[in-house]
Specification:
Helices cover about 55% and strands about 0% of the residues. The longest helix is centred in the last third of the chain and has 27 residues. It has a domain of about 80 residues. The chain starts with a helix and ends in a 9-residue tail after the last helix. By secondary structure, it is mostly helical. The chain is built from 21 helices and 2 strands. The relative contact order is 0.13. It comes from Hufsiella ginkgonis. Keywords: Hydrolase.
Length: about 450
Amino acid sequence: MMKWEMLLSAKRWGSEEKYQGNTTDARSEFQRDYDRLIFSSPFRRLQNKTQVFPLPGSIFVHNRLTHSLEVASVGRSLGRIFYNKLRENNPSLDRRLPLISEIGNIVAAGCLAHDLGNPAFGHSGEAAISYYFNKSEGKVYRDQVTGAQWSDLTHFEGNANAFRILTHPYAGKGYGSFALTYSTLASIAKYPCASQAGHDKKLLHRKKYGFFQSEQAGFERVATELGMKKVTDDPLSYKRHPLVYLVEAADDICYNIIDLEDAHRLKILSYQEVEELLLPLCGDAKIKSRLADIDDDDARISLLRARSINTLIQLCSVLFFNEQEAILAGEMNRSLIDGIDEPYQAAMKKIAEVSVKKIYNYSSVVQIEIAGYKVMGGILEEFVPAYLNNESKYHEKLIALIPKQFLTKNTDTYSKIQSVLDFVSGMTDLYAVELFRKIKGISFPSIG
């Protein structure tokens, strides 16, 4: 059984001493995590990474940055409601668990960080990287790495990449440049296992994976400190940190609801279609009369979105509270969204069905996915051989384009491939397209 006494820790990656606290500080340690993420370069780059719809455009749609900010807002509410419920039943809670009141801040910071590892072009960027090693020119490196390392490369995972970004000592950046708390780091690990364990669709914590081989020892150190429940040693696998469920729920709530709002702005869905999908989630008997007083369809959808998100926050926070014992025991094998009561469950399933049919298969969305394959694959087929072999002036020129922070002193194939992937996965959509066109001779760079 996992215990909150261990699960909530202000120990920082890279400093490794427990914070003693200072009552005069303006921010808690977990609010510091949030602020460090907000001001970081990887977070700012999310503004030019695709959420669902192509960027840029004359009509505003969400990108990875705006999505992450909204997820953080929802996550803070989920954590705060859970804390308030705990305190209702235990007035002495704060004396026994001094950090328990920080759950909302921990979850908010985890929400900000949850998409940091996603490459350009959304999930198609992940698939393109995997494809390069599975089916394309990258296959030639199979015999140069271990089986576990090859699993990392052929199943490239944004979740694992986020943990790497937050903990890897990039050249010139100092050890643990983010220096986040252990609890915040653990809160983003939806799949706390190595890649060879991360393909079991029946187990929520092993549907994908959460750390590369290069970060396995670091993740194990965090998990051990927090008392996370270990499942297997080889391949390494843990049960989730409980706060992962709240980070995941915040993400699920936002993308399910807000993708509908974007689809309406782009005229993919009519107002009537969106209203029909969201009304069952509003939980407000007066919602129809309130909608009738509003003339603007965008404003109506904003109201429907706000009421729907509020309903889902309440449902998920109550479920998290009620299922606390199973979650701490590592026995919860479903997401919070998948556990809410009918008729809300049916409403969410309907939204998912319509989203797949009309949004995620919309022509421009499919086009950006196809472009992602071509662009990411084209960049990898130039830079990976160049950095591994460096056998020509052309290779030297390509290596010169890689920022020094991503270069490694290690000489093994796995480490050098990871260096290229650090560079490529951090690119924004627009930068990746521009670089692809230039190195393929499709366009020429401007001077200055």
